[in-house]
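seq:
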Amino acid sequence: MGQSSSSEASTLSMEERELESQAASTGSLPLLKNSFSKLSDPTSNSIPLSALQECFALKYTTISCEGVDLPDCFQELLGQIATSITDTLFVPQKGGVTWMEFVRGFVKGCGRMSTSSLLNILLRVLVLSADRAGCPMNLHFDSDEVDSKISGSISPRDFGMIIWACWIMSLNSRSQKRTVESDHVVVPDLNHLVLSAVVSCMDNSNDVDVWDNDVLRLEAELNAGKIHMWAIRTVPNLAECFSNFISSRLKAATFEKPSEAETSSTENSSAKACHFHLLTSVRAWAISLSQRSDASEELLKICFPSNLDVIEDSLLYRSYVHGKGLNRFWSNVEGYHGPSLLLLSATSGESSLNSRKWIIGALTQQGFENRDAFYGSGGCLYSIYPVFHIFSAPGTEHNYVYSHLHPPVRVYEPHPKPVGLAFGGTIGHERIFIDEDFAKVTIRHHAVDKTYQHGSLFPEQGYLPTEASVVDVEVWGLGGKRAKEIQILYKRREDLFTEQRRKVDLKTFASWEDSPEKMMMDMMGNPNAVGREER
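struct:
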């Protein structure tokens, strides 16, 4: 008996050490210890299930959406998320959730695993929440394993609720409140992401009117396997909305509940951010979901800012404010050596009556340089509006960026290089080319481009080059505070050099007779006078 008990204790100890090692690999073991000590009952040394559910609760009195009617059951779905999380991740014992089960549940939902497995956990929680809210989704899992196969289908309406739930999780992950409790919350219009999934997963997607804002009412069924692949390919960080939410709620559980003033200020600043820019908060969020780099965190700061100063520091150039043209563009982006995001809105159509406005984007891994050849170390193109798509760089070619200005000294060039801004393709056959006046943009078919993936950058793009009128251009710096500080120092140094070149030090000349000023005055006084040669 004694030997059996000792062996069992040794086995449990090894299992506990293995779980703690997995939690430590994510850097969250100190967080788990702090939150467990805060939430657990000292008498039972376990967390009451009700306390854990309170930690993950999303409490809103009313919810509305900008320009879209939310499904009636969406608010109830949010109310069921806390219970679904605890039932999916944590196995309570007699007195509650023990330390070992607490760590096991965290590793199951937030541990190091594939994007596919994390996405499965997210969908399990939301499907269970929808079932309990009275609006079941037709998604099924073969087993309880995290990497089990998903079958069934889902409607655009139900998929929209999944995207909105992920948005609210992201919103709450950026807050340090212990519980989110507000009278009213406004969720944004995320139709461009729902449309992306619909167009990518439907067999007859050409029949879908992408300019119709009522995509949630489409009578369509999206295959579960195709939706799963779309998420991994287009928005791989979507599952991290869930894992970040779990971590942030456990972290917030160790803090005291904030005052009402702190709660309202956080919500208001988020609602007002990026409202008048091409890079709205929902577009910044969508692009952040597609990136696994430091640029994703910078985009989330723009999407959910703590104050509006973040926006002004990140926005490098906007043609609506700074003026159109390559020279105006260059004077604002020169010296910035960090990831940069360019957004461009344009209108195309045979006449003003049938013209459509669309938005495309390009993300570069470094700043812009004045060169007469393509350059860059990485990047991707985006279709932003009305449908969201990402076209990454598979690495076949490396013609990422082309930005060429007129040389300061004009010389004869037998074969002058085009002046403008371009992405992908080759010189003379660029996939995207913006002229030097920022008046026209030319979009070519992806057949000319081996740098970025194939696909249409705007709806109904044909095989022939399309020339469209540029409406607005924005460039956002995603290199963080350090990259901005380096650019400021660069501009100060350039201003100093320019000021020094304007000054002429007369002490360098021997006398007034040798000074350039006297020479100019003599020429202006009598330019035709014949100089007398001294012998």
